[in-house]
Amino acid sequence: MASAASFSKFSLTLLLIVLFLGSSTNAQLSANFYSKSCPKLFETVKSTVHSAVMKEARMGASLLRLFFHDCFVNGCDGSLLLDDTSTFTGEKNAVPNRNSARGFNVVDDIKSAVENVCPGVVSCADILAIAARDSVKILGGPNWDVKLGRRDARTTSQAAANNGIPPPTSNLNRLISRFNALGLSTRDLVALSGSHTIGQARCTSFRARIYNESNIDRSFVQTSQRNCPRATGSGDNNLAPLDIQTPTFFDNNYFKNLINRRGLLHSDQQLFNGGSTDSIVQGYSNNPNSFTSDFVTAMIKMGDISPLTGSKGEIRKNCRRVN
């Protein structure tokens, strides 16, 4: 009896340890992580983001995209923000980011403002998470409590960025597979893709779709082709809104566009093309509250991807370089 009781007690202890280790990473992230160490954090970030978005509405989408691209490469660790050095090549010049990722100067401004009120306390990874939330809210989208406590990576990988971020040419299976690999469901994929209700894309990202694909509205094709010539090298950096209806307002028109075959990117229209995600798109187009609720859930889940916590990483003084 004694040995059985001892074994049972040992098993229970082992189970508790396993459960603790399995949940410890995310347990260290919390909305009130800086409530005592940096009480003015949220108002400081919001003020700088608001100024930037009022100056250029597109910046809200750009800041949101930085958070996506950071989290999809080795987790939400601020690695995207690191400049190239003589010892490593960063993510900024990876294919998904080169001549495309933007807003780094705004992140610098936010970091500088935060350092003025609480030096050496808040990570660049957390600043990206807050700036993404604030951008969505400022452009008319939902609000949510951002979980914080991430630390900054000391290194980065261009190869990981090239392989980790799904390109706009991705088909549905590839999108689902990549999101699932990061712990994000197919529903999360569709909800997060709804961030394309704001922002713009370069001609190089949608040229093949508007000239070669048939599952696309003809009037939309004509409008898009005016600013994106067929020939490679001609107008490559010309921009078009991802949501042709309300490109600077966060709403569910993106999904209505997909139903009308007006998805700008190939990967957008894949979400409504006779596949498994059609019903989700239909649901979001009919119920904006369902979309915003799922979007918030997915953003929080994405923010939980492999954060550096505790003694891992560092708190960068300058988001562009390690300390």
Range of helix content: 40-55%
Q: State the total count of DSSP E strands.
A: 2
Mean pLDDT: 93
Q: Structural class of the secondary structure composition? A: mainly alpha
Query: What series of H and E elements makes up the topology?
Result: HHHHHHHHEHHEHHHH
What is the distance, rounded to the nearest whole angstrom, between the alpha carbons of the first and last residues?
Answer: 58 Å
Shape: globular
| Spatial sequence of strands, sheet with the most strands | 1-2
Tell me what portion of residues adopts beta-strand conformation. Answer: under 5%
* Low confidence ranges: 1-26
What does this structure look like?
- This protein is an all-alpha fold and 323 residues long.
- Helices cover 50% and strands 2% of the residues.
- The chain is built from 14 helices and two strands, in the order H-H-H-H-H-H-H-H-E-H-H-E-H-H-H-H.
- It has helices at residues 2-27, 41-55, 58-71, 104-117, 124-138, 158-164, 172-181, 186-193, 203-212, 218-225, 253-259, 266-269, 278-286, 288-303; strands at residues 200-202, 239-241.
- Strands 1-2 form a two-stranded antiparallel ribbon.
- Helix 2 (41-55) packs across helix 5 (124-138), helix 11 packs across helix 13 and helix 13 crosses helix 14 (288-303).
- The longest helix has 26 residues, at 2-27.
- The radius of gyration is 21 Å and the shape is globular.
Primary descriptors:
323 residues, mainly alpha, two-stranded antiparallel sheet
Summary?
By secondary structure, this protein is an all-alpha fold. The chain has helices at residues 2-27, 41-55, 58-71, 104-117, 124-138, 158-164, 172-181, 186-193, 203-212, 218-225, 253-259, 266-269, 278-286, 288-303, and strands spanning 200-202, 239-241. 50% of the residues lie in helices and 2% in strands.
